[in-house]
Amino acid sequence: MTGPNPLRQPEGGAAKPAVDAMPDPWGVRRAENLLTTLEGVLSARVVTTPLGEVSEIHILAQAGLQPKQLVRNIESALLAHLGLKVDHRKISIAQTAEVKPIETLEKTVVRDRAMHRAVLFENLTARASGRALRVILSVTLSVGGRQETAEEEATDTPRGRAEGAARATVGVLERLLEKYSLVIESIQVVDAVDRSVVFVAVQGMGGRDAVLLTGTAEIRQSPERAAVFAVLDATNRWVDARRPA
After folding, report:
1. For tag attachment on the chain, is the N or C end more exposed, with fewer CB atoms within 10 Å?
2. How far is the C-alpha of 163 from the C-alpha of 186, rounded, in Å?
3. Quick check: is 105 in a domain?
4. Dist CA 2 CA 94 (whole Å)
């Protein structure tokens, strides 16, 4: 290695105790911090001799990078920023899969698991029926990449549309459950706190067991859309516990 060495203690004219010849820890840390700024480098450790000369550089890098190119990047960075010329044979590269903080990994796992389990709203459409003042509502839901659609005819009024959308949503959920049944017990549009909210009560049945499930959703776009989300709010956990794997 040639050139000025920022990792070595300055030399004075007079003899100094041996302890002064020890490497400057801040210089080592400065080199390590520099290397960790390089693309793909996860961690860096610089080992020096008692005289402050670089003897080894250990790099942990992401998988997929070319080791030779990474070594050249390290050599260039040390020379350009610290004036250090290091023999490439002193640089060792270890590669690993993508490393993320544990908090990030936990959030990713929870989100992916939730997306895998959740029943997702896909679409809601309404079209005229062949009967006067009647409308056909179609609701599409998906879970795990599987989509199902159900239709219900309802009176063409805000309450009628909400009831029809709720029944269609229950129809889709029954197809996803296969062995369980859901029945709309009650649906109401409630005005509270300067907002209109759809409230639903759904009876969940399986074998001899029956349970009353309730859910709400604020009306933002239409009563029928809010009715779909109210049914999902009422049934999401019950459905998830009974949905086939």
Report:
1. C
2. 9
3. no
4. 26
Burial 17-53 (b: 16+ CB within 10 A, else e): eeeeeebbeebbebbbebbeebebbeebebebeeebb
Backbone angles phi, psi at 173, to 5 degrees: -60, -35
Residue-wise pLDDT tens digits, 118-136: 788 999 999 998 888 999 9
Among residues 64, 96, 128, which one ends one of the domains? Answer: 96
- Is 127 within a domain? yes
Q: Which residue do the tokens 């400065």 mark? A: 30
Is residue 196 in a domain?
yes
**Segment among 4-8, 16-20, 98-102, 149-153 with least mean pLDDT:** 16-20
* The token pair that represents 178 in the structure block: 């296969």
